[in-house]
Amino acid sequence: MADSVDLKAAGPILDDMVTAIVAHAAYLSELDGATGDGDHGVNMSKGFRMTGQKLAASPQSLGDGFATLAETLLDEIGGSMGPLYGSFFLDMSTFLKGKTSLDRDDFGRMLHKGIAAVTDLGEAKPGDKSLVDVLAPASAAFDAAAARGETFAACLTALETAADAGFESTRDMVAKIGRASRLGERSRGFHDAGAASCRLLLRALAEGLKQRL
Amino acid sequence: MNRIINDPDNVVEDALVGLTAAHADLLARTSHNRVIRAVAVPQQGRVGIVTGGGSGHEPAFVGFVGPGLVDAVAIGEVFASPTARAFEAAFKAADGGRGVACLYGNYAGDNMNVKMAVRLAEREGLTVKTVVANDDAASAPVDQRSKRRGVAGEVFMWKAAAALAAEGADLDAVIAVAQKAIDNTRSVGIGLSACTIPAAGKPNFIIKDGEMEVGIGHHGEPGIAVMPTKPAKDMAALMLDTIVPDLPFERGDEVAVLVSGLGATPVMELYILYGHVVEILASHGITIRHRFIGNYFTSLEMMGASITVTRLDAELDRLIAAPAHSIGLTVTGAQ
User: Fold this and answer.
1) Contact between B84 and B35 (Cβ < 8 Å)
2) Peptide bond into B248 cis (omega under 30)
C-alpha cells in the first residue's frame, strides 16, 4: 500500500462528494428545517450539482476540483454556507497548488488550512453547534493518529470515526451561532445541518483517498 | 398568498427586469446578473460606494443606487445575503481607482460573504474597506452594540459617505464618516403584521391581530416586547423612549429623522407617526434638521414602521443635505 495519493488520480473523489450531497439533499433540508429555514439541502445540492457538471465536462485533479467547487459555492450559494464551504475548499486548493501527490502529513496540514478559513470567517468555536463540531474533532483525531505513527489510511479512518462522533454531539448542543441560535434551548435535540453535510463530505473524501492509496 | 408574481422562485430576477426597464436613466446591469450599478459609474478618481443585502426590502438596497448615493449594489435572494461573488462584482463595478467602501448591515450571511468578497477582491489588487451598520437599538443592549442589526439607519450611512466621496475624499475619510454616521444613529421598528416570503408561501412568524411587536427586525426577528396595539402617539413615545436614551440624544442636539414604512402601512399613517416624533423630540429640546418620511426600508408586506434618528455635526449636516438622486431617496440640495 502506497503512503501517498496521486492528486490527478484522486480527482474523481469530487464526484463522490457531489453524489453524497445530492443524494442527501432532502435529509439536509429536513435537519435545517427543525431549527432554521430549511434550505440547506437545496442550496448545497444546487452548488454541488453544478460543480459535478463542470467536472464531468473537464475532469480535474483533486486540488483543481476543490477550487472549482469553491468558486461554484461562492458564485451560487450565498447565505452562510456558500462562503463557509467556499473558503474551506478554496484554502485547501491553495495548499495543494503545485503538488502532484498528497501524503499523510500534508493532508493534516491541508485540513488545518481549510478549518482555519472556516473559523476565521464564521467565528464558530467547538460547542457552538456548527460544522466546526465535525471539522475540529475529525482533524484532531487525524493528527493524533499521525502522531502515533499510524498509516495515512488508519489516520483517515480515525478522522471518519471522529467526524461521526462530532456530528452526533451536535444533537445535544444549544446553538450559539447562526439562525438556530435565536431558538436557544429549543435548538437542543436536533442535529446541526451544517455538521451533517460536513460529515458526509469528510467521509466521501476519506473513503476516496483510502481507495487510492 | 395573493400576489403579482410568476414563479415564486424567480421573484428577484423578474423584479430586476422591471426595475432596470423603468429606471434606465439611473441603473445599469453589469456582467453579474445580481449586481446593478449607477449609469455613470465607475468614476475615475472617486471612492466607490457599495452596499448589498437580501431582496424584499425595496427600495433598499437597489433603490439607493444613483448619483450622490450608492455606486453598485449586490442583490440577494429574498431575505438572504448576496453571494460573495456578487459583492466582489459590485466592488469591481464601483472601483474608480481609489478603493471601495462597502457599507452594509450586520447579519451573519452578509458579514461572511462580504469578508470573503473582500479577500477575493484583494487578490486582484482592489482595496475594499467596510463599515457594518448596527443601528437597531432594540436588537441588543447598548454594551453589546456589535451584535445589533443594521436597519434603516443604513440610509444615512450611505448618504453621508457617498456625499463625502463625491467631494473627492479618500477611502479612509469616507470610511470614517460612514462609521461616524452609523455611530450617531439609532433606529427601532414596530411590527403590526407578518410577511410571507414568496418561495415559502406562508408567514415565517406571527403577529396576532390587535398586537404589536416593539423592536422587531425587518425579517421578523423578535423585538423587546409584544403588547396590545396602541395609538400612534404612544407608539412614537415607545420608540423614542428606546432611541433617545440609547445614544443618548441630548438637549440641543440637531438630528436627521427617517420614518420608514415596513411595506404595508399607508404613508398617511407614517405622517401621523411623524407628527408625534416632532412633538416628542421638541419636548427633549432636539431639533430636526432633515426629515424623510416614506417607504425606505421595508419587509415585503409587513405592516408597521421604523424610526431612525441621527445626531448631526456640521459635517454630517452638510453631507445629508448634499444633492443625490435615486429611486428611494432624492435630495435636490437647493435650500
Assistant:
1) no
2) yes
Return the beta strands (E) in chain B as ranges: 27-29, 35-38, 48-55, 72-78, 100-105, 128-133, 185-193, 211-214, 225-228, 254-261, 287-294, 303-311
Per-residue model confidence as pLDDT tens for chain B (335 residues): 789 999 988 999 999 999 999 999 999 999 999 999 999 999 999 999 999 999 999 999 999 999 999 999 999 988 889 999 999 999 999 999 999 999 999 998 899 999 999 988 998 999 999 999 999 999 989 999 998 999 999 999 999 999 999 999 999 999 999 999 999 999 999 999 999 888 778 787 889 999 999 999 988 888 889 999 999 999 999 999 999 999 999 999 999 999 999 999 999 999 999 999 999 999 999 999 999 999 999 999 999 999 999 999 999 999 999 999 999 999 997 65
Please give the Cα distance from A30 to A54 (Å, whole number): 27
Q: How far is it, in rounded angstroms, from Cα A74 to Cα B249?
A: 42
> Residues of A at the B interface (Cβ-Cβ below 8 Å)?
37, 71, 74-80, 82-84, 86-87, 121-122, 177-179, 182
Confirm whether the ipTM is greater than 0.90: no
Active site residue B219: yes
Contact B113 A82 (CB under 8 A): yes
B248: left (phi over 0), alpha (psi -120 to 50) or beta: beta
If you count residue pairs, one on A and one on B, with CB atoms under 8 Å apart, how many are there?
52
Q: How far apart are the C-alpha atoms of B64 and B203, rounded to whole Å?
A: 27
Q: What is the pTM of this model?
A: 0.88
Contact assignment for A82 to B84 by CB distance below 8 Å: yes
Peptide bond into A190 cis (omega under 30): no
Active site residue B284: no
Q: Which among B311, B326, B329, B190 is positioned nearest to B257, based on CA atoms? A: B311
Torsion angle of the four alpha carbons B18, B24, B29, B34, in this order, in degrees rounded to the nearest 10: -40
Stretch (H or E) spanning B63:
none
